[in-house]
Every structure is written in C-alpha cells, then in structure tokens.
Amino acid sequence: MDAVSQFKQALGNYPTGVTVVTANDPQGNPIGMTVNSFASVSIDPLLILWSIDRNAYHFDAFTQAKTFNVNILAADQSDVCMLFASRVEDRFGKCEWHNGTNGVAVLKNVASQLECNVYNTVDAGDHIILIGEVTSIVNEEKEPLLYHKRLFGKIPDAFYQQS
C-alpha cells in the first residue's frame, strides 16, 4: 500500500464531527460545503479553523469571503451532509436555512452554529486553512453527527454513562 493510501486509511480511522461551512459568493448568493477538517485553535481570541481543497467547487468564493458560518450537524442530519457534499446546484433550495446576523446562511436544526470573521489564511499544500474568529455561537441540545470509516453515526449512550 502506498503512502497516500495509508494516510487516507489512518485518517479514516479517526472519527470526526461533520460540519457544513457556509459563506456568500461575490454576488451575495449563499454557498456551502460539507467539511470535517474543523478544529478549535484558540480561546483568546476565540478561533477555529477548517481547510478547503484548492480544487473545491467554490474555492475562490470561500477564500475571498470575509465571513463564514460553521454549522455543526446534528446526528439526524446525514442527508444535509450528503446534500452539501454533492454538486447539486440549488443546495439551499433543498434544506431549511435563514441568514445569520452576519448575513451568511445558517442551517436549521443543527447541533451548534458559529458565525466567524476571517482571521487568517494559511497555505497548506493542496489546501488552504481558513482561520475564523468566532463572533456568535448558538448551541442546541442535540447529539452531533459523526463520521468514521466512510459511515455516519452518533455517540452511543454508553459513552455518556459514568462509572
């Protein structure tokens, strides 16, 4: 097995949460994509990051946007994940959403939602890392959608039990 295949296998064995990152294109239209390369960076200031492939469908629009939102999907939103992972033209016509306080789309029924201003971008090989300063947070009492070995799931109840 070559190094790229081993790398993909190793990272596929690392369970992650699933997000849909949204922004506006230069014409003001909402854009969004499924992202699992999301992480916290800093508490002071509140910073998060996500990365985008240079070959991504809306690469230019995302890297030119000054604001974006991170929608952390709830366990029952695998359909939303797949919608925003596809190349369907009118993704926003196929889901419920509204504009956040920053004018960028917020998906309904998500586990959490973070509104961000672009803080910095970092060149990272075939990706660009976008670092956002969080300006608004909405949390709901919902379990997150998880992704592991190309499958979706949720945290088992046993995980929450204390010994």
Automatic annotation (TrEMBL):
Keyword Transferase: no
Gene3D superfamilies for this protein: Electron Transport, Fmn-binding Protein, Chain A (2.30.110.10)
SMART domains: Flavin_Reduct
GO molecular function: oxidoreductase activity
Domain Flavin reductase like: 11-154
EC number(s) from the headed UniProt entry: 1.-.-.-
Any one Pfam family match given in the protein's UniProt record, by short name: Flavin_Reduct
Top EC class, one word: oxidoreductase
PANTHER family: FLAVIN REDUCTASE, FMN REDUCTASE (NADH) RUTF
Name of the protein: Flavin reductase family protein
Species annotation: Chryseomicrobium palamuruense
